[in-house]
Design goal:
Radius of gyration: 34 Å
Strand order of the largest sheet: 4-3-6-7
Strand content: 5-15%
CATH architecture of the domain at 506-595: Sandwich
Largest sheet: 4 strands, antiparallel
Number of strands: 9
Oligomer: single chain
CATH class of the domain at 506-595: Mainly Beta
Structural class: alpha+beta
């Protein structure tokens, strides 16, 4: 709807109370009028951004993944952050609608269609982003035809596709009664295409109690299923990181952290989408400030949980200070990525929580501003979680470089633009409000409106919430300071200096190979030239694997001035040289603990070497791993069968013309419309 039309509706509502009390059917029909200039302008701009992203993808296909910024030092980057963010925000619309349906929250009714539509569009765009992420689109075909069931990416594909289908089914099933309702109330505004489509969707739907009962059971079942499906999607995404050899990714907390992040950003996206369509289509009668406040409370609760998970993830690694993890976290908290990380903390946590906590900003505009901070800041956090460890060089301990190229930036912007574009096109075809649900709860909403407003006023009392706001701010400050001190406090104690041993003992090292075994012999003499009576000799072999270093072979006590080690003997732990050719061995002697050791080295020409490979012993649960894919396939198959059966039941029951509902063209004033025999 154009801006002019919206202004006209708003002015009419202000001057004529009857205009503000139109039925939900009339509102949906009004939203389906011929769009104005504003609508076409927005669609054309969004389409241009999407087209630019498609062009950037073709450039990536021609020039390779390097055009998107990939290199030897960055194998994952903004592409996987885009996938996680888009699929994550889809979680909010679907799960919020499912949870509110299961808990019987009637205030959800005006939000469900928009929230579920946002979930469908974002999950479809997120699934599409997998294609540029894998590079060659042929790999997607091979992922299906030649699956590697031990790879997390395969189960990512299974989980996301199953969740996507459940989201589409959850969105589509309520369209059956809504199509019938709009056909009954149509005054010629549906048009030929929508009329034919609605007749096909609603064929046989009469509003009979049996039909409503089957639909309600189906929606309840899908609501129950979609929650664990969404949890599985983001858990598998987190495990894809945990099974990759990079510091900070091997964290057991990442799976629940991904789930909470998806809910947090998802609720924020619902607020933005609902606010946009409320303003654009004049839905102020149905979507009121209380909806935004309640969504804001939900967003704040999830945001506080995500802040806890973030620092519960970072603080232990920063405190322990393990080399690789400490390097990555130092880079994140006080290094080159620190500015971006603390920008997320302020913009993605502190500001949104304060906007919800302070009564003066707990308004529709305040919740929209808070959500406007959350969505991009959660993308930034995922970007940091991906790029910082992916750029870490596990060999040198340094950091590589990744630069966001124009190709990757255009693909990301195209994905962002595709979501509102799909929603605008979708709501040109389907009703923007859930007609059947709103009519069902309309009277109950009217009865409870007074009590709800009173409760909201009580909750908005500044005297009650001001201390809470100060508490939230103080708690966030403590978390931020604790994280900074945890990293800055990580240090290494200087090694203790050993006492300088007095000059005196001398050692000689000799090495030979006899009968395929290397014999290392050390003779030890004291300061007077007599054989030493005690002490220990530690033997080592020099290697260049992972850099020049000495690998200890074992220790042998000195007996009558001699210490001997036979490689493959008792003192060497069964070790034998694994490569033929000159090999350097060293011996280190200390008469007593604390003495400065004396060291000697010798080269032995090894002619008999043995392979270092030893078959691994069978794992205790190796048999379980063999049957796990079969079990998972059975579970996924059962989910698909249940979803398909549920959708089929709704379609079949709408074909049984047993009882029909009298079309309602006036606002419901005495409960649900009456029914009569056909």
């Amino acid at each position: 709807m154009s801006a002019v039309t919206n202004a006209a509706v708003t002015n009419a509502a202000a001057t004529n109370p009857a205009a503000a009390t139109e039925t939900v059917r009339a509102t949906c029909l009004r939203a389906l009028r011929r769009p104005g200039t504003g609508w076409w302008t927005v669609v054309l701009v969004l389409s241009a951004v999407v087209a630019l992203g498609v062009y950037a993808w073709t450039v990536q296909l021609r020039q390779g993944m390097g055009a998107a910024g990939f290199n030897d030092q960055a194998f994952w980057a903004a592409d996987i952050a885009d996938v996680i963010a888009l699929i994550g925000v889809s979680y909010g619309g679907a799960v919020v609608s499912a949870v509110l349906r299961l808990t019987g929250a009637t205030w959800r009714a005006p939000l469900t269609r928009i929230a579920e539509g946002a979930a469908v569009c974002t999950v479809l765009v997120g699934m599409a982003l997998i294609v540029p992420h894998i590079g060659n689109p042929v790999r997607l075909y091979e992922l299906v035809t030649h699956p590697n069931t031990s790879a997390p990416v395969f189960w990512d594909f299974i989980a996301v596709s199953t969740y996507g289908f459940a989201s589409v089914a959850f969105f589509a099933m309520p369209l059956v009664p809504d199509s019938a309702a709009l056909l009954a109330a149509d005054d010629g505004r549906l048009g030929r295409f929508r009329t034919a489509l609605y007749r096909r969707i609603a064929r046989g739907w009469t509003g009979a109690p049996r039909q409503h009962h089957v639909l309600a059971k189906a929606l309840t079942l899908v609501s129950v299923m979609i929650i664990p499906l969404a949890v599985s999607v983001h858990s598998v995404l987190a495990w894809a990181f945990a099974t990759t050899s990079r510091p900070w990714w091997h964290e057991s907390i990442w799976a629940p952290q991904f789930v909470v992040a998806a809910l947090y950003s998802g609720v924020a996206l619902v607020i933005l989408v609902v606010a946009g369509f409320r303003s654009g289509y004049g839905l102020q009668q149905w979507i009121t400030p209380r909806h935004f406040v309640r969504l804001g409370f939900l967003m704040a609760a999830l945001g506080a949980g995500y802040v806890y998970f973030t620092f519960a993830d970072i603080l232990p690694g920063a405190y322990v200070g393990e080399n690789a993890v400490g390097t990555v976290l130092a880079d994140l908290l006080v290094g080159r990525m620190a500015g971006w990380f603390w920008l997320f903390v302020v913009g993605g946590a502190v500001i949104p929580l304060l906007l919800v906590a302070i009564p003066a900003t707990r308004t529709t505009a305040g919740m929209v501003v808070a959500a406007s901070f959350v969505v991009p800041m959660l993308w930034l956090k995922r970007y940091l979680m991906v790029v910082t460890p992916a750029n870490y060089d596990v060999v040198t301990g340094g950091h590589g470089a990744y630069h966001l190229t124009w190709v990757r930036a255009c693909i990301t912007l195209a994905a962002v633009a595709a979501v509102p574009l799909l929603l605008m096109l979708m709501f040109r075809v389907v009703p923007i409000l859930s007609v059947d649900e709103i009519e069902e709860v309309e009277l109950e909403e009217r009865r409870t409106l007074t009590q709800a407003l009173a409760a909201l006023r009580a909750a908005g009392d500044g005297r009650a919430t001001a201390p809470a706001a100060r508490t939230v701010g103080a708690g966030l400050a403590v978390l931020v300071l604790a994280g900074a001190f945890g990293v800055l406090g990580v240090g290494r104690a200087a090694p203790a200096q050993a006492a300088q041993a007095p000059k005196g003992p001398r050692i000689e090292l000799a090495g030979t190979q006899t009968d395929g075994l290397v014999h290392l012999t050390v003779s030890v003499k004291d300061a007077k030239g007599a054989p030493a009576a005690g002490g220990t000799v530690t033997f080592s072999v020099m290697t260049t694997v992972f850099g020049p270093r000495a690998v200890p072979l074992g220790s042998v006590p000195v007996t009558k001035g001699v210490a001997e080690m036979v490689l493959d003997g008792a003192h060497s732990g069964g070790y034998r040289p694994t490569q033929a050719g000159p090999t350097e061995f060293t011996a280190s002697y200390a008469a007593q603990v604390g003495d400065t050791p004396l060291e000697r080295s010798v080269d032995v020409d090894v002619t008999a070497a043995v392979s270092a490979y030893t078959p691994a012993a069978p794992k205790p649960l190796e048999g379980v791993g063999a049957v796990t894919p079969t079990v998972l396939f059975a579970v996924v198959g059962a989910v698909w069968v249940t979803l398909l059966t549920t959708v089929a039941r709704v379609l079949l029951v709408s074909r049984r013309r047993v009882v029909r509902r009298v079309p309602a063209t006036e606002p419901a004033t005495a409960g649900r419309p009456t029914t009569q025999s056909a």
